[in-house]
Amino acid sequence: MRKLFVNIGTLAGIVPEGLLRKEGPQMDEVDAFENAWLLVEDGLIADFGDASRPVPDNADEVVDARGGMVMPAFCDSHTHIVYAGCRDGEFLDKINGLSYEEIAARGGGILNSSDLLHRTSEKELYRQSMERVGEMIAKGTGAIEIKSGYGLNPEDEMKMLRVIDRIKRTSPALIRSTFLGAHAVGRGYTHEGYVDAVCRMMPDAARYADFVDVFCDEGFFTVEDTARILEAGAAAGLRPKIHANELAVSGGVQVGVRYGALSVDHLERTTDAEIEALRGTSTMPTMLPGSSFFLGIPYGRAKDYIAAGLGIALASDYNPGSSPSGDMRFVMALGCIRMRLTPARAFNAVTLNSAYAMGVSDVVGSITRGKRANIILTHPGWNLTKIAYLHHSPFISSIYLNGEIQ
Ligand code: NIG
Ligand code: FE
Questions:
Q1: What DSSP element (H or E) covers 240?
Q2: CATH number of the domain that 375 lies in?
Q3: Looking at residue 107, what is its pLDDT?
Q4: Does the C-beta of 320 come closer than 6 Å to ligand 1?
């Protein structure tokens, strides 16, 4: 099946084969063709060109882009979208002045979601989660990492991982799964006892999960707990992705780097030592401006990381407690408005680099021959700057995942 997109005003986000992430000055580059065409064959990008090359004439179907922009679909490398219900009561507590930590200390927060999840059937959990996946796809996301971490006991963590696995098999989006047993201490456990339990869950979790994560932060898990859990993860073949430095300078970045983390995420509170620790590593610093926005905490120092020669990724952190939105266009806009990233930098952070941060930048995240045809077709007249600037005006004309319209 050959599908040809013609009359593309701008084909943005072209990346050479084999370039898996952008770092330092590369963050400023977005390669594009004007007046372009794009050929998709069996769901993959087969070829593309501008007016200097003849438009192929052997397509089975032709899509007229009417001068709109074609860009890679967003990749969201950090979400918690498998959860039950929501926490609207805590939203009122927050408005009335309680902090994220105070809500958690009163038995709300992650433990509240864990109680709700325990009472919800696997089938219903899948249904609610797929609704969120559908919402994210409609907003232009084509790849999603999803974490466990609201189970907090062996049975419920496995329930979550099975739901993520079912989403992986049934959604047109590319899904990666992360075991975040160490999200909070489960009810009925001592802190030590729970860290032991998470290590014991690892072999079972590894049957479904692609990665292991730990909430290494003040009031949650220490650097020592994290090292133990990452050792157990490594023994089960799981590479880390770490929650670090959201609530305090936690040491989470350094322990993540020590264990070869694919990404270290949050980073709202970092010193120059964290930036230094990341230089020359394969770990992607990932910032979650939706949580900074919702919690009213600092934004990550994205520009300092780029000035130090590093790449950064941006992700939504979609979850019921600190970032109740999976809108990656809004994430991109926050990157520009609040973190002072140029639209080009924010775009690279929500596409190729976010794909890298979930281990899939060889198959999605850019316009590259052989990659999945996960693309956004915009209305005419849109460009990357306007997407961030006019941050809530509808810009998407259609979304294609694996070359199929959604
Ligand atoms: O990434 N920081 C820890 N975990 C989530 C919040 C989860 C929740 O509150 O339900 C986060 O912000
Ligand atoms: Fe998170």
A1: strand 239-244
A2: 2.30.40.10
A3: 81
A4: yes
